């Protein structure tokens, strides 16, 4: 049994004990101080008949009738047994009251005559109605608990599904990122061996982040920023001087705000893929800042769409970004993207509110 389940059971039983304790002992507060101990005790014992019958009927339904018959699709048997039980309880309550009334009468000889009591059949009716309400209360409590258990099981299943999907996305992302980077280094080898060697060194730094930090659902923001900067430096080695690359990253070197790893890298890859013209010119601007748990990353590049016969890339990176944002920041992110300035410029802007991480994964922070 999990700690959460044990805590829930203990809390439920404390509520039961508290409620029944109030019902059983409340009459003691209503007696007059002038009554003798014997009279007070007899009156309290007389008042116990109804609570004890309520308690017996409540737990008869709670532990046996509801689980076995009502939830077992044997509702006719459930109602039939309850009718018999209510009749028995009504007789017990009435007889209990009558016995202790006689005991009180012999202990209170000086008391003035009481007002005429209601007819017995009215007492039977009141007791029967109150017992029916007790059955309804027991049914409501049991069904509420059943719904809570079903909801808890559904959340557990959803948690497992989400964790499996995130793991699958990470497993897809690693080879996708590595393939793109190796393609870049392969292109460098053909015309600049020294730059290719520098690129391998930069790649080793990137792989350290991919292989280790990417196994966590969340990493400190400063690590992710360092990874992005290393990637940009790697890309600068490959591109020509005709490509203008600028960055505006306003993140403190010790900023530990949790963020999903590699959440922005596909956007940067996309900028280098489509932001450079065939003649080796283009502009790429990367900006990022964080304020009180709100992270904004904006990437703007010149727009040079792939030619129809260009089969490089499959778009899997952007699909993963969309899926991970939905899984980790559902309802607390905004992703705007598209072209502007007469289709000459492409922009992608993601705003994250990391103060509201998906609770299914929050515990892994």
Question: Can you offer a commentary on this structure?
Answer:
- The structure is a single chain.
- This protein is α+β, with helices and mostly antiparallel strands and 365 residues long.
- It contains ten helices and seven strands.
- It folds into two domains: 3-117; 162-362, Heat Shock Protein 90 (2-Layer Sandwich), CATH 3.30.565.10.
- The strands form two sheets. The chain has a five-stranded mixed sheet with strand order 2-4-5-7-6, covered by helices on one side.
- Strand 6 (333-340) and strand 7 form a beta hairpin.
- It is rod-shaped and about 115 Å long.
Largest sheet: 5 strands, mixed
Total strands: the figure is 7
Gross morphology is: rod-shaped
* CATH-assigned homologous superfamily of the largest domain: Histidine kinase-like ATPase, C-terminal domain
Secondary-structure map with pairings?
Layout: H1 3-25, H2 37-47, H3 49-70, H4 75-107, H5 120-189, H6 193-211, E1 219-220, H7 221-238, E2 243-250, E3 258-259, H8 265-274, E4 282-291, E5 294-302, H9 316-328, E6 333-340, E7 345-353, H10 359-362
Parallel strand pairs: 2-4
Antiparallel strand pairs: 1-3, 4-5, 5-7, 6-7
Question: Can you tag this structure with a few keywords?
Answer:
single chain; 365 residues; alpha+beta; 7 strands
In short:
By secondary structure, this protein is α+β, with helices and mostly antiparallel strands. The chain is 61% helix and 13% strand.
């Amino acid at each position: 049994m999990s700690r959460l389940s044990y805590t829930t059971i203990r809390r439920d039983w404390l509520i039961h004990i508290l409620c029944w304790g109030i019902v059983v002992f409340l009459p003691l507060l209503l007696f007059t101080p002038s009554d003798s101990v014997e009279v007070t005790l007899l009156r309290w014992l007389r008042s116990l008949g109804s609570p004890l019958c309520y308690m017996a009927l409540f737990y008869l339904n709670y532990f046996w009738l509801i689980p076995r018959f009502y939830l077992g699709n044997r509702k006719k048997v459930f109602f039939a047994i309850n009718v018999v039980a209510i009749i028995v309880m009504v007789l017990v309550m009435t007889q209990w009251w009558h016995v202790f009334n006689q005991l009180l009468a012999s202990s209170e000889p000086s008391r003035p005559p009481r007002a005429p009591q209601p007819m017995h059949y009215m007492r039977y009716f009141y007791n029967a109605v109150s017992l029916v309400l007790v059955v309804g209360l027991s049914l409501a409590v049991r069904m509420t608990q059943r719904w809570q258990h079903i909801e808890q099981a559904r959340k557990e299943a959803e948690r497992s599904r989400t964790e499996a999907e995130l793991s699958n996305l990470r497993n897809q992302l690693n080879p996708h990122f590595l393939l793109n980077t190796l393609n870049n280094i392969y292109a460098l080898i053909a015309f600049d061996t020294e730059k290719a060697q520098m690129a391998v060194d930069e790649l080793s730094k990137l792989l350290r982040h991919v292989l280790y930090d990417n196994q966590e659902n969340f990493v400190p923001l400063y690590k992710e920023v360092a990874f992005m900067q290393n990637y940009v430096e790697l890309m600068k080695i490959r591109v020509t001087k005709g490509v203008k690359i600028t960055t505006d990253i306003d993140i403190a070197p010790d900023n530990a705000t949790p963020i999903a790893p590699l959440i922005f890298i596909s956007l940067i890859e996309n900028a280098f893929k489509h932001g450079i013209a065939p003649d080796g010119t283009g502009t790429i601007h990367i900006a990022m800042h964080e304020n009180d748990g709100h992270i904004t990353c904006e990437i703007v590049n010149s727009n040079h769409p792939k030619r129809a016969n260009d089969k490089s890339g499959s778009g899997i990176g952007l699909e993963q970004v969309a899926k991970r944002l939905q899984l980790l920041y559902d309802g607390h992110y905004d992703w705007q993207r598209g072209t502007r300035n007469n289709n000459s410029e492409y922009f992608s802007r993601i705003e994250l509110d990391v103060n509201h991480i998906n609770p299914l994964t929050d515990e892994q922070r």
